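Quick one, probably user error.
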């Protein structure tokens, strides 16, 4: 019975612990939501603070503008008051005159206003004509400079094309020379193989003739002499083949140099063509602006 009671108490405690754990989990979730809300509020507060700073700066600028405008307005008001005082003074003087004089003065004022407007328009037109003349001079100088650049680039391109043609002819000659050297090398290799076979046959014949008969020493001496001649010829042919290999290597290095020079010249030619296209486009745009 005590064990049963303890079990029941333990079950009650476990249930209570589960409830407490659930409550704690709910509290943690609520706390996390509050933290996220606080972070959002903090970010909004920072953005609002930045906007407030920007608005304060703009407000200060506009306050400065308003102050300057108020000062100008006060200045204009003072000028207006002065003009009003002078106008009243002149009005008192002109009251004594007749109606004709007043009509004439009104007409003169109208003509003066019209003259002022015409004078202002003439000044504006003269300023515009001056600006247009200066722009025309600038465009003329730019066109002269571009014409000079085009002439220089055309001369440079002609020089590069002539060099390119010379290099192409040299490359063709080197390739033909390489082909002939390859053919000669193949012929020499075949001749060398034939000579090696012949020397081997002669050696076999010599060994057989030495074994067969000692009386044929004179023939052996002759054969040895022929063998020495063949060996000398073979050595000469080997030296000749080595020299031709060296010539082939020289021709290949020369061809590699010519290929590198050709590639560099092609790159320069492509760059010059791009510069020419860019200059033509600029010239057309400048001509259109001039028109």
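Nope, works fine. Designed sequence:
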């Amino acid at each position: 019975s005590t064990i049963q009671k303890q079990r029941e108490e333990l079950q009650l405690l476990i249930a209570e612990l589960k409830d407490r754990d659930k409550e704690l989990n709910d509290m943690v979730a609520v706390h996390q939501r509050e933290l996220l809300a606080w972070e959002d509020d903090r970010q909004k507060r920072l953005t609002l603070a930045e906007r407030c700073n920007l608005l304060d700066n703009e407000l200060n600028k506009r306050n400065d503008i308003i102050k300057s405008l108020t000062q100008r307005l006060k200045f204009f008001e003072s000028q207006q008051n002065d003009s009003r005082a002078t106008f009243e003074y002149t009005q008192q003087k002109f009251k004594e005159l007749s109606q004709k004089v007043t009509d004439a003065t009104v007409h003169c004022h109208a003509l003066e206003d019209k003259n002022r407007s015409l004078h202002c328009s003439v000044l504006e037109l003269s300023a515009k004509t001056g600006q247009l003349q200066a722009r025309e001079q600038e465009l003329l100088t730019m066109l002269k400079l571009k014409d000079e650049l085009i002439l220089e680039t055309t001369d440079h391109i002609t020089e590069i094309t002539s060099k390119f043609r010379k290099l192409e002819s040299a490359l063709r000659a080197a390739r033909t020379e390489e082909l002939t050297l390859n053919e000669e090398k193949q012929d020499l290799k075949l001749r060398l193989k034939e000579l090696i076979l012949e020397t081997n046959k002669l050696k076999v014949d010599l060994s057989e003739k030495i074994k067969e008969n000692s009386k044929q020493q004179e023939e052996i001496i002759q054969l040895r002499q022929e063998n020495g001649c063949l060996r000398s010829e073979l050595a000469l042919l080997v030296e000749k083949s080595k020299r031709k290999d060296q010539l082939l290597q020289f021709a290949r290095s020369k061809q590699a140099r010519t290929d590198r020079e050709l590639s560099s010249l092609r790159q320069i030619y492509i760059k010059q063509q791009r510069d020419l296209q860019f200059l033509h486009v600029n010239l057309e745009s400048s001509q259109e602006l001039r028109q």
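The mean pLDDT is 80.
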